[in-house]
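Progress report, Aim 2. The chain analyzed during this reporting quarter is listed below.
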Amino acid sequence: MTVFAPVPTPRKSTADPHARKKEDTDRTAAWRARMETDEAKEIYKQRAATAETTNADLRCRRGLDRLLVRGPHKVTSVLLWGALAYNLLRVPLATLLG
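Predicted C-alpha cells for the chain:
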C-alpha cells in the first residue's frame, strides 16, 4: 500500500517539512519525499471527491457520528453494515436486478 497523506507542518517555520528527520525510518523518509512531488499532491486532492464524501454521508445521513456499541468486533460490524448500505445505495437498481 502506498500512503498519500499530508506531511505535518513543522514547528519551526524555516524547516522543510519534506526533508528527512533523524528519527525517520526509510519508509517515512520515502513518504516525505513522495509527498513533495506534484503527482502525489494531485492524487491526494482526489481524496475529497472519494473518501471524504463517503465519510460525510455515513456520518450525516446514516448516523455513524456516534457508535452505540462497544468493542472492536461490534464496531467493525456496524461500520461494515454502514459501508454495505452506502455501496448498495450508490449502485443503480437496474444493475442489481440484472
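The CA atoms of residues 22 and 29 lie 10 Å apart. The chain has two domains: 1-49, 50-97. These observations will guide the mutagenesis work planned for the next reporting period.
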